[in-house]
Amino acid sequence: MKFCAVICEYNPFHNGHKYQFEQIRKLSGCDKILCLMSGNFTQRGEIAVLHKYTRARHAVECGADVVIELPTAFAVSPAEIFAGGAIKILSSLPDVDVLAFGCESGGKEDFLRAARATLSEDKQFKAALKENMKDGTSYVKARTQTVLAFNTDVDEALLTSPNNILGVEYCRAILSSGAKIEPLPIPRVGGGYADTALFKNFSSASALREALKTSDKKTAKLLKGNLPANVLRDLAGYRETPYKQAALCALLSGDPETVMKCPDCSEGLENRLRGMAKSNPDYDVALGKVVSKRYTLSRLKRILLQNFLGIGRKEVKSYLEAPLYAKVLAVSRKDLSALLAALSRGSFPVLMRKSDAGSLKKDALACFETDVRANELYGVLTGTHTNEFESVTV
User: Fold this and answer.
1) DSSP state, residue 41
2) Range 303-316 average pLDDT
3) 3-state class (DSSP) for residue 63
């Protein structure tokens, strides 16, 4: 069995994701699609619009064969850790041959060339990088400037467009880990990654999430045109959660040292965030006053989420180095035995029921307990109760 993997959030699953599945069937040479999906919280530092089991079911109903969970500690971390953790899980599965990802431009060799360039950091490179950060530029942007200055054969768009940036991170992780996985960039259609405008058929997940907050007929019609019927049905009862208030409460009730240990926190950001939250008890206003050239909104939101979930950089680093697990969220009833057999050939234990978690030790257990905690907190915020082991056979 040959899997083409997709690292995803499906927040929510939309027509663009379905299109990607169609392209994977045509281009990958694989016979099955495996999705490695973030759980109830996402890399932008936000709470998911639907529960992880619901989103996983949507993926299988729309063409995926199996969905496993990207551990929460990786799912809410910066791009390098997000990608590194994802490739760690995928490379533990010998039947994963290809990784497909959406992109704005570029082919396989373009992405690998850019990834190699970002991995080559000699003394001269590091000195130039430090110089590029002196004016307050973020590390990621400064690294991009430095890579382009030292590598004229690298396409700038690969290091500056949202999906391309993540694609390069995937390829960096593949190369640095020695994973035998072939990248398959698939051009996006319709709205861009952060595009907030609604289109007729292919809008971004960002635009769709924003549209869920309104209820006019025009928006409802556009949502219907962008979402598969099963997703639209489950989103009918969507309501915003009190997550933002909860995140601010966690920030102010905890101690600064705990916030300081979050993966995205550095340079005294914990004090700036807490101070701004005290004087501006509104999530968006408080973060808006801390956003700068160096500190992006997504990074600040992740810090609050990491603190809310109790995730520290030291623990995340240990998870990246330890044997972990493959937690199944949904699987197709068709070829069920063969799919589960393929997962069991991996080097990590497969988790489908409570008793499976009993085999986890040390770092793997701590990592899994973070998933459990995130699930429980999501239940409180959404007023739902979902057992951590409710794998869906579709």
Assistant:
1) B
2) 98
3) coil
Contact 8, 102 (CB under 8 A): no
Helices (H), 184-228: 205-211, 217-226
3-state secondary structure at position 390: coil
pLDDT band at 191 (very low <50, low <70, confident <90, very high): low
Q: Which of 325, 348, 350 is nearest to 339 (CA)?
A: 350
pTM, 2 dp: 0.94
Two structure tokens written together for 52: 């992880």
Task: Work out the end-to-end distance of the chain between its first and last CA atoms, rounded to an integer number of angstroms.
Answer: 19
The answer to whether the beta carbons of residues 44 and 72 sit under 8 Å apart is: no
Tokens of 361: 């030790």
The domains of the chain, with CATH numbers, are 3-112+184-239+319-393 (3.40.50.620), 243-315 (no CATH)
Distance CA 86, CA 126 (A): 27
Residue 270 in tokens: 């914990």
In whole angstroms, give the CA distance from residue 213 to residue 216.
10
370 alpha-carbon distance from chain centroid? 16
The neighbour count for residue 65, using CB atoms within 10 Å, is 25
Task: Please report, for residues 43, 242, 260, 266, the alpha-carbon distance to residue 303 in angstroms, rounded to integers and kept in the order given.
Answer: 11, 17, 9, 10
Own/partner contacts of 289-294, CB < 8 Å, gap of 24 or more, are 292/136, 293/135, 293/136, 293/137, 293/138, 294/133, 294/136, 294/137, 294/138
pLDDT at residue 126 in the model = 84
| Residues ≥6 apart with Cβ < 8 Å to 347 | 92, 323
Cis peptide before 12 (omega within 30 of 0): yes
- The tens digit of pLDDT for each residue in 220-258 reads 899 999 999 999 999 998 999 999 999 999 999 999 999
Across the chain, how many H-helices and E-strands are there?
20, 8
**Which residue reads 């940036």 in tokens?**
165
320's tokens: 């990246």
